């Protein structure tokens, strides 16, 4: 029997991306590595607003596959945290790099919408919140997650598609 990493315990069964437990484990490890090496990392929350008239099997998996392809660096990772929330970890990245990756994700989302817009039984919008951080002893991982969550909540109440910040 051949073992498939695609269906293992660290993947979300519906989308195929990493699950919350695995993402938090890796992000915690990367936080401590970036603390030692004095490098910047970024936490991105992506909230796709998928409204379906009827269920499209595999639609969410197709969407996340497209997003994964946009993350060109092997170290970047995406995970499903909740039904409508994905986290993306960007490691060893500059502020300019964050902007480039967020733009790339937006382009992938827009391309996905254009490819599937012929099917009028669903609509897709999205919001992207990102916070770059250079870990220090005074900053905590929990604070980073709280800041991105707060930024993501702010986005839900304004017209912007994305917000970038740092801490």
Automatic annotation (TrEMBL):
Sorted UniProt keywords: Nucleotidyltransferase, Transferase
Name the record gives this protein: Diguanylate cyclase
SMART domains associated with the record: GGDEF (SM00267)
The EC number(s) this enzyme carries: 2.7.7.65
Species per Swiss-Prot/TrEMBL record: Shewanella corallii
Lineage top rank: taxon: Bacteria
Record-level Gene Ontology MF annotations: diguanylate cyclase activity
Pfam families for this protein: GGDEF
TM regions (residue ranges): none
InterPro entries cross-referenced by the UniProt entry: GGDEF_dom (IPR000160), Nucleotide_cyclase (IPR029787), Rev_trsase/Diguanyl_cyclase (IPR043128)
Residues covered by the GGDEF domain: 1-165
């Amino acid at each position: 029997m051949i073992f498939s990493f695609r269906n293992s315990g660290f993947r979300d069964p519906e989308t195929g991306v990493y699950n919350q437990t695995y993402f938090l484990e890796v992000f915690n490890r990367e936080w401590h590595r970036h603390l030692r090496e004095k490098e910047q990392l970024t936490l991105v929350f992506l909230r796709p607003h998928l409204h379906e008239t009827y269920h499209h099997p595999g639609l969410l998996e197709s969407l996340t596959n497209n997003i994964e392809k946009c993350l060109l660096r092997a170290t970047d990772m995406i995970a499903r945290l909740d039904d409508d929330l994905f986290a993306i970890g960007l490691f060893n990245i500059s502020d300019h790099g964050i902007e480039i990756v967020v733009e790339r994700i937006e382009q992938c989302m827009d391309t996905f919408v254009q490819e599937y817009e012929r099917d009028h039984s669903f609509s897709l919008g999205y919001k992207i919140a990102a916070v770059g951080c250079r870990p220090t002893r005074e900053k905590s991982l929990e604070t980073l997650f709280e800041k991105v969550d707060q930024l993501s909540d702010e986005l839900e109440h304004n017209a912007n598609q994305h917000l970038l910040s740092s801490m």
